[in-house]
Write a structure and sequence with these properties.
alpha/beta, 3 domains, five-stranded mixed β-sheet, 7 strands
Length: 290
């Protein structure tokens, strides 16, 4: 199953394709900003039943250089089979589009990033046929942006910084810089960034901190994340009410029942359990289906 951090790490280049020029500058490759961008199909399946799909594929036009193909791959862990797949992508794209391809791999942990950045040689030791050298963006080389003014200058790069540094000890300062930078931004700019970072942090502990910062620092009533946070708050309060009523009535609550009540995220179900908690002879009776 594709994780939300995986999606965020490559889809941000679909929304902000000019971000690649800033990332490449950080990585020492220095590709100029594109003058136009075309999002291409990501399906690289051949006629025979072998499906291969790159995460994001963009055609970038620049003023100085010939067009190039940018393939972006989000990589969550080391995978010994991936270099061969990436080499296939490059040769297939060159054959299909007759444009020079470049591969950018985005990672959230240093070990995976350093693994992905190592050149891989294909062919006999005596005479390697191909060498794979992807550009790699990760916590080892992406800037740590903790200054709101710096974040405001390049919100897309600040967003990628927050995602790639999700495990960094300074993640609190990074996220605070982003929310501060977003305070005066219009909803059309603010909401996608809120969603990207929420998606990119996935289940990391920093995700909870991001939700709290957004709730305190920003007004984003049209954002799906706001609705999610608001529902989570309602569910938590409703679960506490159910447990409080059972405790007031002297009803013993088993550990399994307590976990089921506390773990329920549906306010409507919790309201039903709360009504039953007023008269139920045992905690488990609130779960009985009518």
């Amino acid at each position: 199953m594709v994780s939300s951090p995986h999606e965020a790490m490559h889809r941000i280049f679909q929304e902000h394709p000019d971000l690649f020029s800033r990332v490449s500058e950080v990585l020492g490759a220095d590709f100029g900003p594109p003058t136009s961008v075309t999002v291409l199909p990501t399906d690289l399946t051949e006629a025979r039943p072998l499906e291969r799909r790159v995460d994001t594929l963009l055609r970038l036009e620049t003023e100085d250089d010939e067009p190039l193909l940018l393939a972006v791959e989000a990589q969550g862990k080391k995978d010994p089979d991936k270099p061969a797949s990436w080499a296939y992508y490059a040769s297939y794209l060159l054959t299909k589009y007759r444009l020079q391809p470049i591969l950018l791999v985005v990672c959230q942990d240093r070990a995976t990033a350093e693994w992905a950045a190592r050149p891989v040689h294909f062919g006999p030791r005596q005479w390697p046929l191909l060498t794979l050298r992807p550009l790699v963006a990760g916590p080892h080389n992406m800037p740590v942006i903790t200054d709101p003014a710096e974040a405001r200058k390049d919100l897309a790069l600040a967003t990628l910084s927050a995602i790639t540094h999700g495990r960094d000890p300074d993640i609190g300062a990074i996220l605070k810089a982003v929310t501060t930078a977003l305070q005066d931004a219009p909803d059309a700019v603010k909401n996608p960034i809120i969603e990207f970072i929420s998606q990119g942090l996935g289940k990391l502990p920093a995700a909870a901190l991001w939700r709290k910062l957004v709730a305190v620092d920003l007004s984003f009533y049209k954002s799906p994340l706001f609705e999610e946070v608001r529902d989570e708050g309602r569910a938590q309060r409703a679960a506490e009410d159910v447990l409080a009523v059972l405790a007031e009535r002297g009803i013993d609550v088993s550990e399994d029942a307590r976990e089921r009540i506390s773990g329920c995220g549906d306010p409507e179900i919790l309201r039903r359990w709360l009504r039953r908690a007023v008269t139920a002879p045992a905690a488990e009776d609130i779960f009985v289906v009518d």
